[in-house]
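User: Sequence in, structure out. Go.
Assistant: Echoing your sequence, followed by the structure tokens.
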Amino acid sequence: MSRVGDLLADKYRVVRFLGEGGMGTVYEAYHSVVGRRFAVKFLHSELAKEAEILERFKREAQAAGALESENIASIVDFGHAADGIPYIVMEFLIGEDLAKFLAREGPLPVVRAVNIIIQACRGLDAAHASGIIHRDLKPENLFLCRRGDGSDLVKILDFGIAKLAQTNVEGPLASVTRTGSTMGTPFYMSPEQARGAKEVDHRVDVYGLGVMLFEALSGQKPHPGDSYNAILYHILTQPPTPIATLRSGLPEDLMDILHRSLAFDPADRPATAMDFAQALARHAGRQVTPIRSQFNLRVTRSSDPDLEPSAVPSDAGIGPTPATARRSRARWLVAGLALVLVGTAVALLLRQRDPEPSRSLLHVDRATGSLLSAKSSSPSASAPLPASKPSSALPTPPTAPASGGLPPSESVTGPPKASGDGRTRHASRPQMVGSKHAPSRRPVFDQRNPYQ
């Protein structure tokens, strides 16, 4: 039965079929009010008749809807169609799931494979912090989107068979997942799931992440088999295939943490999803921002009981990358340029506040041989005292009026002079000290002149 054209809750118009899974079908819907696209998942009609399945479907909306992480597909609404079939409304994602991507591009480079799993660890850490175990991790439930810079953005899908790990859960939700049932996809099942253990914890998800990393790096499964039972038998009786036999050249520590995540005993696996992420961080190709785990789990092997394993800095034991060094040099360069600009601005401001800067140009009066300042306007500054034995050949310089000062040019040159032969001569123009026109005789300095 096609849902295309249906209007849900008077706001979601179903426009296109997207796909089908084990629990329902997914359509694209258009919100008639805000004009945004959403994905709507309808439970299969035959499953909606079973109360247990119906409760599990409702819990998917409750579990994932309460989680806030960029690595978990957001659920924004829940309702029932006109025929009574329940549906959930999710954010619309553009991209493809990891299964299709690996079928086309696998095996992946180490950096890309590790970054995908680290992001899945972040999303699972948020779920585990809320007491939610996914229990069905597989490449079909990891969706790859693209960020604006072209890097991968991983979204975890389908918490439909998730089990609440909280001990205080009561009511029908507490018994939705039957004790001892083997739910999940066999290739990605942990040994405790395969043998139908009564109690499982969040480390079944760590195991599922390890299987996906194994597949992303090698293109093969760690436990092969041609049938459901053959796969379960291999999981319960045989160790995982050594990844070194499938792909050479992988770092030793990467292979070690990978096989630890696939350990038969949950106690031998990384204690949390974020522990797994921190161990993988050195192979991510760039520094991974450390995030303190939201999952409050203490690890007995830690020497510090107050230290959470996910609180260990992600760059522990990792030197700075070339990109980090370049960014550091760029920051210092920008800081230096900023200081230069600030200094220039301050200098210009001070220059504006003093429109007549002190031009302490010293001039020599050719008539007296004394140093005179072009800026001086007072008699004491412009008229030098006579030497102890003045020369009769040197005329006496004019004296400026007592009140007010002459302009700088007049206080230096003075009025016309009469020579001994009756001809009128003007005082010579001021000359700068050190110029080729300066007098050859040594000037007599005024000891009170502050510019000498």
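User: And one key feature?
Assistant: Residues 246 and 340 are 58 Å apart (CA to CA).
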